[in-house]
Amino acid sequence: MHPHPRTWTHAITTILTQSPGEPQLRALANWLHSFAPTDYVVLFLYEGSHLPLPLFHTMPAELRATFIDDYRAGPYLLDPFCLGCLFDNADGLYGMRELAPDSFHSGHYFDAYYHRLRLCDELGFLTTPAPGCRAVLSLMRGEGGAPFDEEALRLLRDALPVVQEVVRMAWEARSQPPADAVLPTSHVRAVFSSFGEELLTRREHKIAQLLLQGYSSEQIAAQLRITRGTVKVHRRNLYEKLEINSQAEFFGLFVRELMTEPTFSRRRHSRR
Question: Taking every annotated instance into account, which residue ranges of this chain make up the domain HTH luxR-type (predicted)?
Fold first, then answer.
């Protein structure tokens, strides 16, 4: 059952009469919490070639390093929410389980970083506060809690226009200049698009891109309309051509490619 319209009208009015930025974002977080309780809230801006900018969070001091500082040090490059922004997902409410593939919990991002957050569920509002800028307002529930239920999801989706406006005003009011990223967004896109392409066939290259996004062999087979066995053959062949033996080495090679001159730029391969 939807909250009484008058209740929402009063709450939204209260939010929008706050000063843009931290006061308004805190009022927004409190309102969202009233019908979809969360343990942590964090807002990141992804703007141009800059590092993710944390505009607001409700983290206790002892968790800031893990949730914010460590994330900005590099893991954001493999975050499904960040990738959703990078690849132009429409504004809306998304769940980690919706954006991430089925194999997420055995993937590199989970092993290297996400498991340390000890979450049972995460939702994210993807918004576009300005041209060239995307934002993610994440709502997180800690380990031991329950995932967001359908009623909470429905109400949160209804709240999207309010979230979009508050985030837009926070973007306009921000005082902290964004820091230059180690890697420009254009560079990440370029490396993702071209990674290994001079060594791999077109089909192997497509499978490599899907692997980088965390898809399992079963999901790749379904997307490409081939058998799981065929995917395994292509995967074995691309590992051999890239001179690696495991998924961990595959992700490590991709990260090194991001951080250095292309490893394979001088090699040539006749793609089929």
Answer: 193-258
Query: CA–CA separation, 126 vs 263, rounded Å?
Result: 34
Reported as a single tens digit per residue, the pLDDT across 40-94 is: 999 999 987 688 999 999 999 999 999 999 999 888 888 889 888 887 889 999 9
Which helix (H) or strand (E) segment holds residue 92: the answer is strand 92-95
Say if CB 141 and CB 148 are below 8 A apart: yes
Residues 6 or more apart whose Cβ sits within 8 Å of residue 198: 264, 265, 267, 268, 269, 271
Q: At what angle do helices 202-212 and 217-224 cross, to 10 degrees?
A: 130
In whole angstroms, what is the distance from residue 211 CA to residue 200 CA?
A: 14
pTM, 2 dp: 0.69
Cross-strand partners of 123: 95, 139
Indicate the domain borders of the chain. 19-173, 185-259
DSSP letter at 38 equals: -
- The region, left, alpha or beta by phi > 0 then psi within -120 to 50, assigned to residue 268 is beta
- In angstroms, what is the C-alpha Rg of the chain? 20
